[in-house]
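Hi team, as promised in this morning's meeting, here are the two structures we talked about. I've kept the exact order from the run log so nobody has to guess. The first one is mostly here for context; it's the second one we should focus on when we meet again. Sequence first, then the predicted structure tokens.
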Amino acid sequence: MSKLSKAKGFKKSKNGLYLSMATTAFGAFSVAKQAKLARAESDTLRLLDAAVSAAAIATGLAILYRELKRLGDDDVLLG
């Protein structure tokens, strides 16, 4: 099995999905910082950008969660 095919398989594995969820959630810190700065500067356009970014993060996490459920995860937290 080549390294490239192993990497592609990791993306669809449970561990790969957990890693993707963690990195996506980590992006929320950046968006929160952006929103806080935008509010402090009363910058409506940056605040709107932060809101759109937050929606993208939420959507991404929902998609990853759905993929995790499709793998049939036995984790108690996922049901």
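And here is the second protein, the one for discussion:
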Amino acid sequence: MQEVYEFLKNCGTYYLATVEGDQPRVRPFGTVDIFEGKLYIQTGKVKEVSKQLQANPKAELCAFADGKWLRVAGKLIRDDRVEAKKHMLDNYPELQAMYSAEDDNTEVLYFEDATATFFSFTEEPKVIKF
């Protein structure tokens, strides 16, 4: 999981795919954190992505850097604990102008039953499950 985290941090931007009915939805994200041994992302509950994940928690992200790409597939589970939100926001102080660990909008989600696969054109895929 640490390797996945470091790759995503290095990329800066990754793309998260969700489903809305029968329509895939993809958008750029940039937050990633490890808290209590789980890989987290962050968004706002008022956003469509949050509504999509509550209706169907299955999601996949994709990132690319240095000739390699990463796909992480699994379920994203909401964690409403202030401690989890605070940990994320402490790592992204620039978000503290828009989000607070105590507000009703900040949402952090962790991957459950995740499969991360690293790909390149020159190496065999590497699979990490967490």
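Starting points for discussion:
The two ends are 7 Å apart (CA to CA).
Residues 2-11 form the longest helix (10 residues).
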